[in-house]
Amino acid sequence: MKKQNKKQEMSRRKFISLAGGAAASLAAMSAIGMPVDWALNNPEIDVDSLNTDKIKTDVLVIGSGMAGLFAAVKAHDAGAKVVMVSKGRLGASGQTPFAKGIFAFDPEKEDLSLDEFVAKVSRSALGTNNKAYTKQMAQHSLARVNELKEWGFFNSSLYNKSFSKPIEERNIPVQERITITHLIKENGSVVGAAGFSIDTQKVLFYEAKSVILCTGAGGFKPNGFPICDLTHDGTIMAYNIGAKVTGKEWNDGHPGKSENAAACYDGWGDMFEQKPSTTGVEIRHDLGVDMNYVAYKNGSPLKMGPPGSGQQTDVSGGPYTPEEFTRQNATPPGGKEGGRPPREGKGGPPKGGKGDGAPPGMGGSIVGGSSAGMAIHKSEGLVPINDQCESTIPGLYAAGDALGSYMAGAIYTQIGSSLAGSAVQGAVAGEAAASYSKKINTVTISISKLKEIEAEILAPLKLEAGYSPAWVTQTLQGIMIPNFIIYIKKENLLKAALAYVEELRDHHIPMLRAANMHELRLAHETKNMIVSAEMKLKASIMRTESRCSHYRLDYPEVDTENWEVWLNIFKGEDNTMQFEKQPFNTWATT
Ligand SMILES: Cc1cc2nc3c(=O)[nH]c(=O)nc-3n(C[C@H](O)[C@H](O)[C@H](O)COP(=O)(O)OP(=O)(O)OC[C@H]3O[C@@H](n4cnc5c(N)ncnc54)[C@H](O)[C@@H]3O)c2cc1C
Questions:
Q1: Which residues contact 147 (CB under 8 A, 6 or more apart)?
Q2: Residue 331: φ, ψ to 5°
Q3: Smallest CA separation from ligand 1 atom 30, residue
Q4: pLDDT value, residue 296
Q5: DSSP secondary structure string, 137-188?
Q6: Predicted pLDDT at 192
Q7: Confidence tier at 228 by pLDDT (50, 70, 90)
Q8: Ligand 1 pocket, 98 CB below 6 A?
Q9: Per DSSP, what are the bridge partners of residue 489?
Q10: Residues 6+ apart with CB under 8 A from 261
Q11: 64 lines ligand 1 (CB under 6 A)
């Protein structure tokens, strides 16, 4: 402790003397009673005494939501040794605990054939969906739903119990509250991952023959957002080792409140009280962006409600909806169409919407427009090279919201498919990763790589002075959250936002400081959010058209000639962000 105080004192003196001219202002601040150590790091732990552990496995599953559950179970059942590691807790982290409707396609009962279903989703998604993943989700959804039923998923509103059942029956080790910060590649293939534990204060290395990213999506941690552990970690870690990622220009449609532009997703609390249920094949074309467009044109507040529900004042222009999917005065979700599962003991419209047709939990009749910062489920994430959830890096797989499968395209085509897609893709990735790992004899991470990564993980704790991750995150939110940045897009504002984000990337990321393990996690998360923001802005600038959840005020039309493509992002040899077009319905090349 004494040693620590001495170190801090030295740091403080060194910083003040180094700060040169700034020292005079610090002295002046001190004279008027303002604290002078605003930028200094005051470590609460002795970073040099942190222990390291190394864990060996065949398949490493990162993330413990719906995708992670099925990835771990199916990889184990296919004969692989599996370790599951998660930033949160099994069945109680990520978006999974909030989802209450899971899609099941029962060919015996549905009027649509599988192929008709896929074709209708494609019409709704304006061609942006990957038909192989759309079909796979529908084809295997019932089998996954039946397994969940066996594990007790539909008996309780809380998922940790039913998720623990198959994991405990198989003795699959689960390590919780571990933040994975790095994927590790040697000789072109993935060989594991690294991160740290908040609870044991250890740096952890995982040597694995294959890795499945089930890390979910990500946002910018806006106010009221229930999923603050999701900060695009998976896509950014994969991008850092050379994987292709996609889907950054699309936007999740959940808008915010007029009272507080950053308060999107308020009021989802009672989702925990609902029991899950199954949903059917009703295909729609819901955006959320159109509500923001109306708010942008008319000002707030607006009444919440799905497109065509009669809650919104008509305005000209705005995002395009195919005729087949316009829903004039349609019954809102939760009403007699039965698009969402009914709430137990409560008939009629969901509570959150105060009877105005809001989706459950949306909490109120007002929207102002803000963005969570994530894309529509399953459109953002690692680029697959086949329908086995394999990424462009050998040995690296992804499933669920971490995979850019374009299962439903760049839009929310039907309720419940997202949870079903995570289950189906988790199972597919689990089996594929197990089969891949059987072909690999052994993997080792070189000592030099271990040292390099450990230094990168701990860097914010070693910084003598810098920016707190909370401050940098708030700055990023101020840039990215207004609805006229990534909902109602135009070139000059996208470029202005990008200039700020590039400043955060170049100047603030290297100066993110952390005094303890919690701040260390925030520092790594903040870094990932900044890189994701850069991707979102650059992809949005590039796509000079409007389609689905990407709406450009300066390019309002769908451009079929130039933009029947997905936009992939990868790190160039000079470490700069590169973009490439991949035509719809083709697989990426590595
Ligand atoms: C409020 C709300 C309501 C929804 N309702 C529905 C619905 O009714 N029906 C539907 O189909 N979908 C719904 N969705 C979407 C659905 O919940 C998600 O698409 C789905 O749960 C994603 O599952 P996943 O396993 O891919 O990711 P997640 O469930 O998000 O899991 C990600 C996991 O990765 C872990 N993780 C992240 N980063 C790291 C890291 N660096 N290191 C280690 N672990 C990490 C997290 O802790 C978590 O365990 C809803 C979403 C929300 C937010």
A1: 166
A2: -70, 130
A3: 94
A4: 83
A5: HHHHHHHHHHHHHHTTGGG-S-SHHHHHHHHHHTT--EE-SEEEEEEEEETT
A6: 98
A7: confident
A8: yes
A9: 552
A10: 368, 369, 370, 481, 482, 483
A11: yes
| Residue 266 confidence (pLDDT) above 70 | no
Distance 90 CA to ligand 1 centre (A): 11
Q: What's the CA-to-centroid distance between 449 and ligand 1, angstroms?
A: 31
What is the residue-averaged pLDDT of the chain? 86
User: Tokens in use for 218?
Assistant: 């990500």
Ligand 1 lined by 264 (C-beta under 6 Å): no
From the CA of 159, how far away is ligand 1's center (Å)? Answer: 12
Output the pLDDT for position 190: 98
Whether 413 is in the pocket of ligand 1, judged by its Cβ within 6 Å, is: no
- Our mutation pick for probing the ligand 1 site, out of 96, 176, 240, counting the most ligand atoms within 8 A of Cβ, is 96
Report which of 478, 496, 583 is spatially closest to residue 537, judged by C-alpha positions: 496
Identity of the amino acid at 524: H
364: pLDDT strictly greater than 90? no
Count of alpha carbons within 13 angstroms of residue 35, beta-carbon side: 5
- 245-246 and 381-382 beta bridge pairing: antiparallel
Highest mean pLDDT among 134-148, 274-288, 320-334: 134-148
Tokens 């459950």 belong to 360
- For 390-436, where are the E strands, in sequence order? 396-398
DSSP helix/strand/coil, 430: helix
| Cα 433 to Cα 440: distance, rounded to the nearest angstrom | 11
Q: What percent of the chain has pLDDT over 90?
A: 67
| Lowest mean per-residue pLDDT among 18-32, 91-105, 145-159, 333-347 | 333-347
Q: What is the rounded average pLDDT of the residues 306-329?
A: 72
| Cβ atoms 368, 257 nearer than 8 A | yes
Residue type, position 477, single letter: Q
What is the token pair recorded at 416?
């419940």
The finding on whether 88 has its CB within 6 A of some atom of ligand 1 is yes
Query: Which residue out of 418, 428, 520 has the highest number of ligand 1 atoms within 8 Å of its CB and is therefore the one to mutate?
Result: 418
State the pLDDT confidence band at 313, using cuts at 50, 70 and 90: low
pLDDT of residue 298: 79
Q: How confident is the model at residue 5 (pLDDT cuts 50, 70, 90)?
A: very low
Give me the residue label for tokens 């137990």. 344
User: Are residues 66 and 102 in contact, defined by beta-carbon separation less than 8 angstroms?
Assistant: no
Closest atom, ligand 1, to C-alpha of 64: 49
CB–CB of 367/300 below 8 Å?
yes
How deeply is 85 buried, as exposed, middle or buried, from its count of CB atoms within 10 A (0-12, 13-18, 19+)? buried
Q: Are the C-beta atoms of 246 and 383 separated by less than 8 Å? A: yes
103 CA to centre of ligand 1 in angstroms: 15
One-character DSSP codes across 431-496: HHHHHHHHT-------HHHHHHHHHHHHHHHH-SB-B-HHHHHHHHHHHH-BHHHHTSB-HHHHHH
